[in-house]
Write a structure and sequence with these properties.
Helices cover 34% and strands 22% of the residues. It contains nine helices and twelve strands. α3 crosses α5, α4 runs parallel beside α5 and α6 runs antiparallel to α7.
């Protein structure tokens, strides 16, 4: 599928979009997409049981060794595909791809140095909340209560972990994951069942071990870098509206987080049980080639290289 890159709103993730205007609509703010997710799920609602897109998304945020404001992703959505199906498919795809790359290195591309961390499936798994509780040696507060933000902030301060610039509950939980869970993910490892506030587009449930509301989700990390994200899609328009409202309450600065009424209306027509998968192609190429910088797998480098090229030409 080919979905819109320009639209009046940017949904499918919480990120700061690039904004512009269109000659045809001078009084409206147009955004470049930050993810194709909501468009692809509309296609599923329309009757396509399997859809995918490999395309570019844009986020007006930081630029470092593994992030570029312009990046390529592969997303797919398949009806009647659960979380375990998504995990199994991801394991098969990556182990098969790694074996293929090893064959290329041995036969015709000896200069490639792919990451040598791939093991046979199954990959490792870490439960998000249980993993953090084991690391900090105390239970997390009930993350659905209004005072969760205050209590999680205290956990960070007590351990001398710097609070995020915008200390919302999702960002503080993400900081805990980056501190305690992601460093454990040198070999391929799924971080499972994120708190509901971190995955507002995923179905959620009450997790029996800790009685927390968590998402039916998994993120694959390799070398402590996120490679893929997958979850069972929320298909209740009522639950999705509630989660959009909660997501909007965590909005900071210019991040795109709005209630997409047209998507909620589309859900009212009925989204079958659906599994969704997203993978960063640029970062996957880094892993398979052994590149240390995202710019090394882009034809003209990162945005910094592209901007510098224009300046260098202009100064001549």
């Amino acid at each position: 599928m080919q979905t819109p890159i320009l639209a009046e709103g940017a949904g499918g993730a919480v990120a700061r979009p690039f904004r512009t205007t269109a000659t045809e609509f001078p009084d409206r703010v147009i955004s470049l997409r930050i993810a194709p997710e909501l468009w692809l799920k509309r296609m599923v609602i329309g009757g396509f049981d399997r859809v995918f897109e490999i395309g570019t998304s844009f986020r007006n945020e930081g630029l470092d060794l593994i992030h570029n404001p312009e990046f390529t992703t592969c997303e797919f959505y398949r009806t009647y595909f659960g979380l375990e199906d998504l995990i199994g498919m991801t394991e098969d795809m990556l182990t098969g791809l790694a074996d293929h790359v090893k064959g290329l290195v041995a036969s015709s591309l000896p200069s490639l140095q792919p990451a040598s961390v791939y093991t046979n499936a199954p990959f490792g798994r870490i439960d998000f909340i249980s993993g953090i509780e084991a690391a900090i040696l105390q239970p997390l507060p009930n993350l659905s209560l209004p005072d969760a933000n205050i209590k999680v902030a205290k956990i960070l301060r007590d351990r001398s972990i710097a609070l995020p610039a915008s200390p919302t509950l999702p960002q503080m939980l993400d900081r805990l994951s980056a501190t305690y869970l992601e460093p454990q993910c040198q070999k391929p490892t799924f971080i499972m069942h994120h708190p509901e506030c971190l995955s507002p587009l995923a179905k959620s449930f009450l997790n029996p071990p800790n009685s927390q509301r968590v998402a039916a989700s998994a993120e694959l990390f390799i070398n402590s870098q996120e490679i893929a994200n997958m979850y069972e899609e929320e298909n209740s328009p009522f639950e999705q509206r509630r989660k959009f409202l909660e997501q909007n309450s965590h909005r900071t600065g210019e991040s795109s987080s709005f209630i997409d009424e047209s998507y909620i209306e589309a859900l009212e027509w009925g989204l079958p049980p659906t599994g969704g998968f997203g993978c960063g192609i640029d970062r996957l190429c880094m892993m398979m080639s052994g590149a240390q910088r995202i710019g090394d797998v882009l034809s003209f480098g990162s945005l910094r290289n592209v901007v510098s090229l224009r300046r260098a030409t202009a100064s001549r």
